[in-house]
Every structure is written in structure tokens, then in C-alpha cells.
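Quick one from the shared queue. A colleague (R.T.) flagged DNA replication and repair protein RecF as missing a structural entry in our internal table.

Convert sequence to C-alpha cells.
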Amino acid sequence: MRVNQLTITNLRNLKHPSLSFSPQLNIIYGPNAAGKSSILEALYVLGNGRSFRTSKHSKVIGDQYNDFTLFAKLNSSGIDHQLGFNRQRNGDTIIKLNSEPVTRLSTLAKLSPVQILSPEQYDLLIKGPSYRRKQLDWGVFHVEHSVLSVWQRCHKILLQRNQLLKNKAPYSDISAWDKQLVNLSEQVTQLRQAYCDKINPLFSDYCQVFLGESEVKIELYPGWNDKQGEGLEVLYKKQFEKDKRLGFTQSSIQKADLKFLLKDSKKAGDYLSRGQQKLLITAFKLAQLKVMQEFGLQSPLFLLDDIGAELDSNHQQQLLDLLAQQPTNQQIFITCVHLDPIKPLIERYKNVKMFHVEHGQVEEVK
Ligand SMILES: Nc1ncnc2c1ncn2[C@@H]1O[C@H](COP(=O)(O)OP(=O)(O)OP(=O)(O)O)[C@@H](O)[C@H]1O
């Protein structure tokens, strides 16, 4: 996946820049509050239909305007496309792909996958499970698109089951759903587990680089405890009375989590310093990128927001070294305040474009 051109209209402080990108390395630099991250935000919206910085769509629209618009020329799986995205202050969204309306966000996700490493992501270990689950499912989806329909069917049955539990329906009515629910839950779990198995050796290698420690892994918690290996259907039977009291299904794929474990199964979130946690997340994101490159249907855009801000110069250099080894078809976007620390990276790339941003004005620097 590659974005060749992007025109942004009225997104945050960006009025109407029209940018033509390098297929490899793009550096966006300038002082604080210039609008650098807003360019990454626009790229992120192309693949996700939402910002990575806020869930409130209206915050992204430039003050004094009623909507923002993106128009991109991109190449996805070797085919050129034109993608238009418009979001109104009242929440209405119009998406057009090659002039045809698009109604599903999954179309965007398949077309233009985006991987991001930004300061917001460094809280991965201390945030709730839903946040880690999203990261996990993003990766699973991009390796195996079919997971979406399985997940959606599973979710629908869970909703029906929960409604019956709320209505205090008898066990016979509820258990009628259980076989199907168990089957779909197991399919989702197998795909999630397969993804974790792909991530782990790469994650361990990157942790060796950043933390000097390779005995690190992610472990999938499927969403239920089955210590006796009885299977989910038996658990549903055993948990029925409690589920009924609570009015929802306690054990489900929607409770799944990713555990980040160190040597001797120590929890990374409890043990690592804040700085080490950042390095661990960086390693995880790089491993996710590599899995996409090796097993995904296409490589995502890789966005690195504020690359210099959170890592010391040693680790920053290690990250830059790894970026310099990326495949030539990997498109990368980096924002930074100062160019000096990333000059060695720029020198190692053949195809680099640099954009200077100040007060929302973007200028390509030759
Ligand atoms: N809805 C909005 N309308 C107009 N301006 C906005 C809006 N939201 C944020 N801004 C402003 O847009 C500017 C750009 O912010 P952005 O986060 O993109 O800057 P940045 O260059 O990445 O800065 P930093 O280096 O400090 O992270 C900021 O001055 C911010 O106050």
C-alpha cells in the first residue's frame, strides 16, 4: 500500500495542503504545534475512518469549518485508486472509492492498512484490555480478512445470548445458541493464537535489540479461564446461573486480552520502567509491521509520530537503523521537530521527500 498524493482540506490547522509523497521515506518536520501530526492523522483516517488521537470526530475538523475532506491517490495491491473522504460536523461521512460510494469501514481497512507508532501508543500496557485487543485484532484482520465475518457472527450471537440472559430466559432457550457461539469463538481464538505465534519470534528479536532481553513474549488470554480443559460449552453450562444474575456472558472473545510477559512470566507492565515499556511497545509495533510484510495481503503505511520525543538517543539510533533496513516497497512517514538526529537515516534512503510544516503551511523541501 502506498499513498502517492494527498490533498487535505480543513483538518485541524491544515487549510488545503496538496502533498506528493515518496514511495519510501517521507520526513515531516517543523516546530511544535505546526501541524505535523495532523498530516499523519489524515493518513490514518484514510485506513481507519477515524483519528488515532481522539474518538470525537468534530475535534479533527478545523475550527470555523463544517467539515474536513481528504482526497488521495493511492496504490493498493498494485492497483491505482482514488479515495475521497469527507466528514461533517454532524457526524455524516461520505467516502468514495474511484467515484463509487463506500459504506463499510472494512473496505477502507482492506484498501489502505496503516500502522502507527505514536506517543499515544506507549500506554498500551497500562490501558484496559480493549485497547490491546484492538491492536491484536487489527493484526489478525490484516493477515486473515475472513476473521471479520466470523467475529461479526460471533458478536451477533453474543448480543442475542445476553438479551436472553437479561430477560431471565431458561437455560434450554439460552443453551440453544451455545454450540454455534462456541464454534465461532474457537475460530476467532485460533486465528488470534496463530497471529500471536507469528509475532512472538519477531517480537523477541526486536526486544533483544531494544531491551537486551529476548525472553519476552505475548500470550493470548482468550476471554475465559479453562484451567481444567473442559471446553467453553461446559463453562457456559457451569457459569449459567452467574451469567443470568449478571445479565451477560462472562466468558467471551470480547474479554480477550494480550499479556506481555518477561522472563519467568513476570508481567511487563508491573516490572518495566516507563522508558522500557516504550521500547517494548516499539518492538511490538515493529513485529506487527514485519508480520504484515511477511504474511499480510499487503504492507501497511508505517507512521512514526514524534520519533525523537520519547526515546533516548541510543535507542532512537537503534530504531533508525531498523527503519533503514525496511524493504524498499515499505512507505514510511516520520514526524520530528529537528532533522539533525535523523540525518543518517535520510542519507541511507534513495527516495526521500521532506516537508517543512509551520503554522499549518506545508512546503516540500528539495
Ligand atoms: N480543530 C482544530 N482546528 C484548528 N486548529 C486545531 C484544531 N485542533 C488542533 N488544532 C491546532 O493545530 C495545531 C497542529 O497540531 P499538531 O498536533 O498537528 O502539531 P505538531 O506539529 O504535531 O506539534 P508537536 O510537535 O507539538 O506534536 C496545533 O496548534 C493545535 O492547537
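Residues 1-113+298-366 form a domain with the Rossmann fold fold (CATH 3.40.50.300).
The CA atoms of residues 140 and 195 lie 6 Å apart.
Added to the table.
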